[in-house]
Amino acid sequence: MSFYVAGTGSALPEKVVSNDDLAQFLDTSDEWIVSRTGIRRRHVLTHESLTDLAVASAKIALEDAGAEASEIDLILCATMRADTVTPSLACAVGEAIGTSAPAFDINAACVGVLYCMEIADSFIVSGRAKTVLVISGEAMSKLVDWTDRSTCVLFGDGAGAMLLRAGEGRLAGELSTRPDTHAIRMPNIEGNSPYNRIEQEKLALQMDGGEVYKFAVNAMGRNIEEVCSMAGLTPADIDWYLPHQANVRIIDASLKKFKIDKSKVLLNIAECGNMSATSVMVLLDEYAKKGTFHCGDKLLLVAFGGGLTSGAVIIEWKKN
Ligand code: UT7
User: I need a labelling partner for 74 at 20 to 30 A (CA). Which of 4, 102, 213, 308 fits?
Assistant: First the structure.
């Protein structure tokens, strides 16, 4: 007994920023961004809070599953930056939808949703939960330095949710890290303690793009092989690939050796950019709502991110 995905939801900020919009204040171009990353537009928070989007996503996922908030036994939220350090985004959503289920945030950067799915699996397998709400919300526009063209053009904001119910939909899951504190780094606030002797680092996301690129291609390829082998499947048996949407070149390079039909690889990077943990969640909801998945289809979610974390989960789609 594990879980199946009973419902999904997502919500994106209203404001859409194109590459040409960015070129108005940065030394960049639509041609550079599209050819190096595949990104054309991204959604950026203006008047909405991340909590607003996460709550909206959760309500859509509950409705999609035909479930009530009172059925939820656990809320897990994948995020690197909730609106507040405390309460967690998971608690903020719990309050808004009206449940007192235990709730906490997980920071595994862009792999956060896969970490949440594996934690949900453990709670369900051990009999501690039957219904788990997994949410993700990322406010990347509030982490990047908008004068740094090498990072700010890559990211977007958004939130998503999935309701997991006890069942037989998870076929295998694999999580890993190759610990690295430099390749992707977002410092925290040092505060104003008169005793603190640690200097405040620049409060913006820093990234060694080339190093992350190499890690990503190797990690995603390895995670796909390992999770398929755990499920007794080959990469050719997978109906749909949902890779982390960081860069189409990374996706192409990591999947190349499996000779997968490109129509099986789902993308929304052109419209959303890299939404960190939220990318795979929004991708799942978008294609679920389009009717892409059929009952019995095998979906492989794979991601990499700061930490450096990586992971993959294979699920069988149980909805019609
Ligand atoms: O969720 C995980 C988060 N991170 C990632 O997934 C990042 C992984 N890395 C990447 O996706 C790629 O390494 C990048 C897209 C970040 C960069 O692509 P690249 O092909 O590795 O470019 P580069 O860093 O080697 O830069 C090439 C040139 C440089 O100019 P010079 O030194 O050759 O004159 C950069 O200064 O492109 C320049 N450049 C830009 N030019 C126009 C960097 N950013 C921009 C920009 N517009 N936005």
Answer: 308
Q: Which atom of ligand 1 is nearest to the CA of 249?
A: 11
Known catalytic residue at 244: yes
36 lines ligand 1 (CB under 6 A): yes
Q: Which long-range contacts (CB under 8 A, 24 or more apart) does 192-198 make?
A: none
Q: Identify the residue whose C-alpha is closest to ligand 1 atom 39.
A: 150
Is residue 94 within 8 Å of residue 293, measured between CB atoms? no
* 137: helix, strand or coil: strand
Residue to mutate, 21, 29, 36, ligand 1, most ligand atoms under 8 Å from C-beta: 36
- Catalytic-residue membership of 188: no
Q: Which residue has the tokens 């052109």?
A: 270
Expressed in angstroms and rounded, the spacing between residue 141 Cα and the centre of ligand 1 is 18
Each residue's pLDDT, cut to its tens digit, for the chain (320 residues) gives: 799 999 999 999 999 999 999 999 999 999 999 999 999 999 999 999 999 999 999 999 999 999 999 999 999 999 999 999 999 999 999 999 999 999 999 999 999 999 999 999 999 999 999 999 999 999 999 999 999 999 999 999 999 999 999 999 999 999 999 999 999 999 999 999 999 999 999 999 999 999 999 999 999 999 999 999 999 999 999 999 999 999 999 999 999 999 999 999 999 999 999 999 999 999 999 999 999 999 999 999 999 999 999 999 999 999 87
Indicate the pairing of strand 131-139 with strand 74-78. parallel
Q: How many CB atoms lie within 10 A of CB 82?
A: 24
User: What global pTM score does this model have?
Assistant: 0.97
